[in-house]
Structure formats: C-alpha cells, structure tokens
Amino acid sequence: MPPDLARDVWRRLDTVARAAFPAALTALGLLLFAVPLGLPEQAALAPAFLFASVYFWTLFRPAAMALPLVFVLGMFADLLGSGPLGLDVILLLLVAALARRWRRLLVRQSFLVVWLAFSALAAAAIALSVALTALLSLTWLPLTPALMEVGFAIGFYPLLAVLLTRAHRRLAAAEV
Amino acid sequence: MIRLSIPARQALGRLTLPLLIASAVALLLLGKADALLAERARAALGDTLAPLYGLIADPLIRARDSVAEAGHLLALISENKALREENERLRQWQSVALALEAENATLRANLHWIPDPGAVYVTARVVADTGGVYARSVLLAVGPHHAIAKGQVALDDRGLVGRVTETGARSARVLLITDINSRIPVTLEHSRARAILAGTNNDLPRLLFWPQDTPPEEGERVVTSAEANAFPAGLPVGVVHYVGAAPMVVPAARLTRLDIIRVFDYHMAGIEPPESAERAGKSATPAAIFEP
C-alpha cells in the first residue's frame, strides 16, 4: 500500500470512529445498565442515562447524533427492555428533535439553563411515556416510579455532562 | 454518497423527523397488534447479547461480591453469634419437621396418597435486568440445548420469582411476579383462601379477589395454588403485609438481587388463557396468563 493511501485510510477510520463515538457510548451505557449490579432502582437509571446522553450529544455534537441514529438507539433500548416496542423510539425522537430546535439558543447558555431545559424535556418525555404506556395497556399505572425516573434523569444529567463534556473536548481537540 | 442539490437535501432533512416518528408509531402499533413479532426480535437480540452480558457482568459481579465479602468480614463476630442462636432455634424446628415428616409418611401410607411427580430443573445465571420503569423481567443465559420452555416456573433459593415468557436459543426471559402484567393464583396458607397476586411494578405485589369473609392476615404466608394448573401447589411466594388498607405481599425471593435462578419444569399443561378464544390462530401458551 502506498504511504499516502495508508494515511488516508487511517484518517478516514479515525473520522468514522470519532463520528460513531457518541452513539456507541450510548449503546454501551445501555448495556451496562442492564447488567444486574444490585444498584437500587437500577431500572430507572437506564432511561435517565439514555435521555441525558441523546440530549447532550444532540446539543453539542449534532452531526454524530443524527435523527436516524436516534431511531436506532431507541429501537435498541426498546428491544433490550420489555416495555412496548417503539415507545422509547418516539420519546427519544421527540427529545432529540426539540433539543435540535433549541440548539442555537441553548449552546450559548450557561450549564444551569441547559440543565433546566433538560429537566423540563425529560419530565415531559416521561409524562408522555406514562400516558402512552397506560393507554396501550389500558390500565392506570402507579406514578411513583415515573416520578422517581424524572428525579433520576434530572439528578443524573450533571454527572453525565461532566464526563461527556470531557469526551467532547477530546473529540473537538482531535479534529482541529 | 449521493450528491443532491441543496433544496432537495433541505426538503429531505425536513422530512426525516416526520418520517421517523411515523415509523416509530407504526412500530408501536405493530408491536401491539403482533406481540409475537416483538417477542421474537427480543429473543434474537437476547441470544446475541447473552454471552456479551456474561462478559460484562462477570467482573462487575465479582467486584460487588468482594466488596460484600469485606463487609461480612467486619461483621463476622456479631454474625457468628446470631447464626449460633439461629442454629439453636432451627435445631428445634428440625426435630419438629422430622416428627411431622414421619407422621406424614404414616398418614400417606394409610391413604394411598399419590405423590406429585418430581420436577426437573435447570439452573441459570441472571445476566441482565431487562425491565424498564414499567416492566420487571430478567434475562437468563442458558446453554444452547436447554430444555427451558415458555410457562415454566422460576424460583430462587427462597421462593417464587416468576415465569418464563420468552425463550431463544441461548437466552430466556423471566417475567417477575412484581411486573404489572403478572397474575398468579395463590393460596393464603392459614385460611386456605384463594386469591390472585397481581404485580404493581413496585417491590410489593398486591393481593386481589380474596373471599369476602377471609381477609388476608398480616404476616400470613402466601403460597402458589394449583388452581388453573399453571403452578404446582405450595411454592413459597411471600408474606402478607398491609400497606394502608391494601394487602400486599413481601416476596420471599430476593427479586432485586437475583443471581442464580432455577427454572422448573413441573409438566403443567397450563390453562388455556381466556383470550385464546378471541385470538384463534395464535398459539395459546401458558405464558398468556400474564397478559392483562
């Protein structure tokens, strides 16, 4: 292989790896949260992580969290879990679409505003999820787990944001 | 990459979201209309991921266990004392149990009682906690030639865990008794009254449809009932505990930390679920008793 071509192949691989990183990290996180670690309320952690991750990457690296990719991630989450198939897909798409629409506004704001916007978005998404699940199974559902999930999502975001911001800076540094 | 003109690309970009959401809604309806499809897709994914889960889970579980072990070491002396006391108490119970067993044997001999056939079981490791906020289920990793089938009964070392709802080539999914779709025929051990144990997605499932004249008593043991021929009689389920006015059951099994589960084949024919009449054409399985 001539050296030019080799370098080109490596550079391309590097670009692909960087572009795939956010989605791959999200999928891996989903897998990790499914492992029985014995954490309290582990079931509520996975969706919190999923929403936070998709929201963060949509805001700060939208090219790497394209809507079709969000669809695939939602599908993956749905197939991993045992809720109604397609529910996570809808919720994630809505979260991603709204985050995309507010993106220009939000990226310039302070962390607190981004966090508040996420909290509102997560609460709305989870409320919709409860409503749709109840509608699909035609039963009333207890609200405590949903409230707990909202709490987890809100509390989880800063932690995740710290880690993801670091990853995001690394990626950005490699691109310059 | 196909090169499109800028307006065409913009139009396509604007169409992506509605198209994706429409397909998600279609997926939701499809999953609702054809539950078998979702089940098959999940079983396939479970099969693919079960070995991977094993890989991820193994070091994590080992780390968790060693942390727990360190805790045990610290509590060794007091625990030893408690265990000795418990042993003392259990020895008394053992003599009671032996006496009862002997009595039981004599009585059986007098009655020509036909014993229940012994159950065959498969032991499997829980590799993933696949429930969501509104579902409680676990994924088991099993060998490629396992004999686990839908409707079989899962128990841990303490009591009833749930029933198998999906099986793949290398994995099986167990719906826990705490899932909101779970309905289990039970007997209240003291009054012998029948009731239904319904999951609530919380830690405590709730008792329904007990007879008016025999309300469940606080602390009463709850065991499975052979009614409906879905479970053998007498598997330990839990203990009645009132939360407000509602009788709940504290499960005997440690449902929040399941490690190893035994899946029993009791050769139960299972009831034909009530929906099967409306759903002619679909195979009626015992697992359908879990459906709402």
- The secondary structure category of chain A is mainly alpha
**What is the alpha-carbon Rg of chain B in Å?**
24 Å
Secondary-structure arrangement, i.e. CATH architecture of chain A = Orthogonal Bundle
Please state the overall shape of chain B, judged from the principal axes of the Cα atoms: globular
The arrangement of helices and strands of chain A along the chain is HHHHHHH
Secondary structure tally: strands of chain B: 12
Helix content of chain B: 25-40%
Number of domain modules of chain A: 1
Overall spatial form of chain A? globular
- Helix and strand content put the structural class of chain B at alpha+beta
Beta-strand level of the residues of chain B, as a percent range? 15-25%
Low-pLDDT stretches of chain B are 272-292
Share of β-strand residues of chain A: under 5%
Chain-averaged pLDDT of chain A = 85
CATH-defined topology of chain A = Arp2/3 complex 21 kDa subunit ARPC3
